[in-house]
Amino acid sequence: MTGADLSRVAWRKSSRSNQQGGACVEVAWPGDTRTAVRDSKNPAGPALVFPAATWSAFLGAIRTGAFHQPA
């Protein structure tokens, strides 16, 4: 998805992020049904923008453990 104006959206850092600047992501909702995601260490860099259904499916997969890697 392209063309999202993300210059004025409020970004929210992941609750899993730490204060040491580790692997952090930020999300924003640009006022429509899309969700934007970016690397918090590079706020001027690119962002990925997902349709609502895709973002919901991704979160659902996380909640059900679909990405869990056994130790």
Keywords:
four-stranded antiparallel β-sheet, 71 residues, flat, 1 helix, alpha+beta
Topology:
Blueprint: E1 12-13, E2 25-28, E3 34-39, E4 47-51, H1 52-63
Antiparallel strand pairs: 1-2, 2-3, 3-4
Quote the distance from N terminus to C terminus.
Answer: 35 Å
Strand order of the largest sheet: 1-2-3-4
Poorly predicted ranges: none
* Radius of gyration (Å): 13 Å
Domain DUF397: 10-63
Region (Disordered): 1-22
Protein name: DUF397 domain-containing protein
Describe it.
The chain is α+β, with helices and mostly antiparallel strands and 71 residues long. It has one domain. It is 17% helix and 24% strand. It has 1 helix and 4 strands. It has a 4-stranded antiparallel sheet with strand order 1-2-3-4. It is flat. The chain starts with 11 loop residues before the first strand and ends in an 8-residue tail after the last helix. 4% of the residues are buried. Residues 1-22 are annotated as: Disordered. Residues 10-63 form the DUF397 domain. This is DUF397 domain-containing protein.
